[in-house]
Design a protein that fits this description.
alpha/beta, Immunoglobulin-like, 4-stranded mixed β-sheet, 4-stranded antiparallel β-sheet
């Protein structure tokens, strides 16, 4: 039984097209999770790693934003890191009355990072969580 030429040609064409697409799809890194405070134009990017330098998945990053007249309004934001240990918080106020304090926690280990968006509107933090 012979395979018709049309079928073998279409099979070969499908392989030629799909093989490069499959390798491209496997090289993409996971999307960075983002949470939006919706108050201002500033942002903070985090990369959380352990003592050995390996990224920590689902490390929780929390911050409380105070805004409005006399800072009466407040908003609590929380986000978890992706498999690369990355997370981004956008929509931070550009001139808060007090610096923002980010609490980073994974399991029983935690660390706090302070940020003043009026001095650094696009902050980037490399956080290492280690057991004391």
């Amino acid at each position: 039984m012979r395979i018709p030429r049309v079928q073998s040609f279409s099979f070969l064409l499908a392989i030629i097209i799909l093989v490069p697409c499959a390798s491209f799809a496997s090289n993409t890194s996971p999307e960075v999770p983002v949470v939006d405070g919706g108050i201002g134009p500033c942002r903070a990017d985090f990369t959380v790693k352990d003592e050995a330098g390996k990224p920590i998945y689902d490390a929780k990053i929390k911050v409380t934003l105070r805004y409005g007249i006399f800072n009466k309004r407040k908003m609590d934001l929380e986000i978890g890191t992706n498999s690369d240990g990355k997370a981004r918080i956008i929509g931070l106020p550009d001139s808060p009355k007090k610096p923002l304090e980010f609490q980073i926690k994974s399991g029983t280990v935690s660390k706090s990072v302070e940020d003043d968006p009026s001095a650094n509107c696009t902050a980037v933090y490399e956080v290492t969580l280690s057991v004391h």
